[in-house]
């Protein structure tokens, strides 16, 4: 009965504030969320969860020992994924991260390694940037994943202690130099001997994720994996 009332309320509200596709702007129909069916069919899914080693895992060879690494989409400039990421990070649409995280969680649920994670650790923003944005997009993604896997999210496991500049247009070395030492351990109690899942929005060179992983891997018995919404083939 409660769910039925919620459905009626949602339908009533949508008469005045109709939901729209965050990619093409068309009005969504019932059972569509965030994006319309047409746009969803054209999104560049990686299917990294179906095979190993995949290109994202290979990127970290010789750098970080990850149990597994997957992304939901390929990132292409001017494409629908870039539009979604932009809306999520800069336009206040946190719900995009939650819904895409849920879809990512469904992929993880059938993965033999990622389905065994114990805790989700979102890559943190610096407090100043978090205040200006109002939320951390990686936490929103982790929330969506957690809704499927029913695993806890530890938002305080890592701290971002340096507000580094944007990574855009930087070389591989410059990206690594820009993010070295920007993270420190937060509340690490209960993380020992756990399989931790780092969660971020977009992975390009992997420098930010690598810097976060280097901090966590000093904990005894920790195993690490990483997932992102998008993988940018630079």
Give me the secondary-structure topology.
Elements: H1 2-16, H2 37-41, H3 55-59, E1 66-75, H4 80-90, H5 94-109, E2 119-122, H6 127-133, H7 137-149, E3 158-160, H8 172-179, E4 183-185, E5 195-203, H9 207-216, E6 223-232
Parallel strand pairs: 1-6, 2-5, 5-6
Antiparallel strand pairs: 3-4
Helix pairs in contact: 4-5, 5-7
Describe the structure in your own words.
- By secondary structure, the chain is an alpha/beta fold.
- It has nine helices and six strands.
- The chain has helices at 2-16, 37-41, 55-59, 80-90, 94-109, 127-133, 137-149, 172-179, 207-216; strands at 66-75, 119-122, 158-160, 183-185, 195-203, 223-232.
- The chain has a four-stranded parallel sheet with strand order 1-6-5-2, sandwiched between helices. The protein has a two-stranded antiparallel sheet with strand order 3-4.
- Helix 9 (207-216) links the parallel strand 5 and strand 6.
- Helix 4 packs across helix 5 (94-109) and helix 5 runs parallel beside helix 7.
- The longest helix has 16 residues, at 94-109.
- It is globular, with a radius of gyration of 18 Å.
- The relative contact order is 0.16.
């Amino acid at each position: 009965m409660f769910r039925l009332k919620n459905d009626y309320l949602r339908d009533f509200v949508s008469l005045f504030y109709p939901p729209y596709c965050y990619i093409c702007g068309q009005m969504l129909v019932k059972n569509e969320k965030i994006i319309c069916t047409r746009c969803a069919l054209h999104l560049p899914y990686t299917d990294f969860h179906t095979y190993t080693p995949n290109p994202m895992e290979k990127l970290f060879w010789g750098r970080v020992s990850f149990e597994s690494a997957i992304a939901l989409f390929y990132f292409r400039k001017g494409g629908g994924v870039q539009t979604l990421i932009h809306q999520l990070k800069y336009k206040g649409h946190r719900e995009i991260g939650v819904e895409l995280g849920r879809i990512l969680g469904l992929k993880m649920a059938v993965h033999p390694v990622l389905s065994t994670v114990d805790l989700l650790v979102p890559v943190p923003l610096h407090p100043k940037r978090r205040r200006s944005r109002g939320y951390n997009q990686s936490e929103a993604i982790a929330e969506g994943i957690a809704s499927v896997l029913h695993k806890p999210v530890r938002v305080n496991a890592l701290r971002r202690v340096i507000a580094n500049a944007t990574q855009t247009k930087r070389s591989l070395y410059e990206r690594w130099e820009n993010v070295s030492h920007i993270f420190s351990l937060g509340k690490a109690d209960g993380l020992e001997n756990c399989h931790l899942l780092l969660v971020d929005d977009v992975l390009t060179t992997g420098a930010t994720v690598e810097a976060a992983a280097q901090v966590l891997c000093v904990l005894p018995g920790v195993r690490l994996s990483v997932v992102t919404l998008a993988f940018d083939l630079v």
